[in-house]
What does this fold into?
Amino acid sequence: MAGVSAATVSYVINNREDQRISEETKKKVLQIVNLLGYSPNPSAKSLATNKTFHVALYLPREEYLYKRCEQLSMIEALSDVLKEHEYHLVIISHEELVKIDYADAIVCFDDTADFFSEIGDKNFIPLIGLDLLTDTPFQIFFQICTDYRALKDHADAHFGTDNYTYVCLEPNNHGIRTLILDTFAHVCFAADGITLPDGNLCYHQAGLRPLVGSAALHLPCDLHLKMEQLYSCMELALNRVPDRDHVVFV
It folds into this structure.
């Protein structure tokens, strides 16, 4: 009906950017798609590619408002990146500690090493720890963490000395908590009822600005770039590409 080949229809429906198809042709194909009420079959696509095009995300349950805000920022950034690569994000409850067969990979955000290991024991698909460090000795996972050393270098250059306090949300993961304390001379973990110290303050989690105030130094941290790195590591794991560096700091 559109007067084009089946291949062209496929390219248009699947948003293939590597094919030269005019906007006029795209509109014509999509108009007829809408007229016929056609929609692609995700099950058929999964069978053809051996992928579900879903990523499962485990989030710890948080009551502290600022931690919930940080979770939302991370979800939005991760969802945007996955959408660019035609993946969908599925958020999983901590109570659902089972074998997951409806996702290509699993992401655990700001969780304990023990929980991460439990997920790994039950699942044999790529597993990614986001802002999570563990020494669990299996190589099907990656760990994507904030580069605190780079943040400190930026703060040192700005203040000239260690005469400042780094303010951040307290991690659930012991490895990340230890890394922060080992990196910065003065650290303040934000929590309910906390009184911030006097003097110079810096932070990188954007949601903390109402707490620390506009005078505090906001350290640069590209959340979208961090999620792009997560996706790249996920692709390495899905394609079983040998890679010796499974801990990536962004």
Remarks:
- The mean pLDDT is 88.
- The chain has three domains: 6-40, 49-146+229-249, 148-218.
- Strands lie at 54-58, 88-92, 105-109, 127-130, 141-145, 165-169, 187-190, 201-203, 217-218, 247-249.
- The two ends are 49 Å apart (CA to CA).
